[in-house]
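1st attempt posting a full record on here, be nice pls
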Amino acid sequence: MKARNHEIRPTLAHNFDTGTSGRPRRGLILLVAMAVFAMCAASYSQTLIGSPGAGWQSWTAALDVNFNGIDLNNNYAPYWDSPWGASGSYGGGLAEKNAGFCLTSTGDCQGLGSALLAPGAIPFWGQPYNSATDTGGARDNTMYFRSSGARLRATLFLNASANQREINEFGWFETDSTGSTIVARHKLFQGSGEPTGTLKPDPVGKSVLFTPTTYFGYYYSDVSEPTGTPPHGCYAYSIFTLNEPRCTETGGGQGDHDFIVFSPDPGSFLPIYWIVGEDPTDCTNQDGDCNLTVVTITPF
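the predicted structure (as tokens):
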């Protein structure tokens, strides 16, 4: 995209440098071309990279004639639409605290600013999903990003846990062009620490600026996994195959600790991403904390 704009810019200047007032017009068109160039460059500030066959999938939070959710019904389609394993342990007796309920501010999931700031049923990244039949929508195990070096703003929208002493740390990690390694981790939002409760978690609503490397993804630290002999804790990554072994307890249909990427405008010049890290269903087989972290990532 950058090389293409470098080619367009002198062509535009040449076309308008023909009249008696060519100098002013050339200066104007150069300014316009520079603005277009800057806007196009910003489109690369955080471009998602995924697996072949995956893409942006649409869904709805609408109800059928019996007032049951059409797509948002805890049936594991899409992969993140599952009952929250800590039913009754956080925020009331409903078991509907998955990412879809949080983004639409329904069920028992309320984030920063409640419905005023919840984005609604925005597209998610995954394998093909049929919203009409509520089928498909499997997880893409490889989700990471390419950066042009632009600064980004991360805002903590929600950090829920059935055990309020076990709050996730959330951050970004450096990787390579194929998403096959973890170079280094960089914390954005502090969790409750290890041992649990030794640190004060960052509050919901906090925003931080960061400049990622060319290839990067997101991680969270589940401080309570696994149970048993210390040290506890594991790191889960948006590239699922990089998850630590201690994050992969068996059971459940959700796939243990994983990520979801949503976007209201994935094709725009300045895309916004909603990054969700979760340990939703299998937690009942282990510690019962059932973490759910929601962070917005916007161009700065």
